[in-house]
Amino acid sequence: MQNKQLSAATRAYIQMTHRYLANHYERFPVAVESGQGCWVKDVDGRRYLDMFADYSVHNFGRSNSQLLMVFIDQVTKLSLCAGNFYNPFLAQLGKALAEFSGILNAKFLPGNSGAEAVEKTLKIARRWGCINKKLDKSKGEVAEIIAAFSNFHGRTMGALSLSANQHYKEGFGPFLPGIRWVKFGDAADLKRAINKNTAAFIVEPIQGEGGFIFPPDGYFKEVAKICHEENVLLILDEIPTAFARTGYNFPHEHDGITPDMIILGKALGGGLTPFSGVVVRQPVMDVLGPGSDGSTFAGNPPACRVGLEVIKMMQSGSWTKKAHQLGDYFLQSLKELDSPHIKEVRGRGLFVGVQLHPEIMAREVCGRLLEEGIMTVSAGQNVIRFTPPLVVNKIELELAVKALHRVLSKISPDAHRG
Ligand SMILES: *Cc1c(COP(=O)(O)O)cnc(C)c1O
Known about the structure:
Bound molecules: pyridoxal-5'-phosphate
Structural class: alpha/beta
Number of helices: 15
Shape: globular
Number of strands: 15
């Protein structure tokens, strides 16, 4: 986009950002001012259809009034309760999540960000491994963790140690030892990688940042069986895929398995507050004792009230149904798009990725979609992500499909042949 088309206000925020902020994002030239439902307004009053939801955070719509009500109510009464005291809201949320997640005898450990919750699973897995695996400490053996290639688990040092993406890791090492990588979607590769010191396999049910990659049918059944037989903990990172996003309460319900730990974040805070946590089988969670973990703000009462309300809303079943039905409709509409630039359309519920041919940069297409009033970002080099708030309707989804068609039809049909 040409800078000269930008308003004075937008230009000023862009300059201010470049001058005063860390340069860790490649930003689109839109300064966002407000959002409601699945619509966003910039500082110039231009409206955008939100097909992104800030990475699948606003599942229930931006500024959802039911969630706002409990959040504001709680902020005015009690905003924080340190972990040294009993927190009634956290107790209730723990109970609700344990019952709702379907994990046997589950317990909850709260966090703030997704990456922080990932760190907690690494700590739990390492300590569980120290207790349950016969590590030869004299040889420097550690409880090993297996991760999948092309994963994304966040940007903190532990989560980054799991990454196989050199661009993310450049210059930040040394990283955690004892990490191995296996092919995502290949259960035999997992089986080969397990040894006597393996404590856990951490994996996303569907890889998001990696490019909306779906494993073959039956993969997770195999994975769960292998982990069970080998006494290896199965940790599912469900941060962007839980809470109706894929048409299920939790994405592992699609696979018919029960993992040892699930990692939640993003939509858990209803788009109003940062909130994350891990739901863990009781004997595994019990490796943590007093003093082994903690966080000043994790499990704060307003976040817990929102989390409780999120679960209450989910229990109606209407959100999963909506994601399922709209997702099928959207996927079908995208598949009917006749463009030489589209390689594949993949999705489950409203977790949808459009893979373009390698020569077409998804980021550039997203920039042009923005000019058409459609907000989203790419995943990897060639995938356009579509994860709208689940309050979106068919007419709005059609707007996005038509805009994508217009944008792609302006790219030379020969472009993808290099
Ligand atoms: C977003 C995300 C994270 C990290 O969450 P933050 O809140 O950004 O730290 C981890 N794992 C997956 C799969 C994610 O999509």
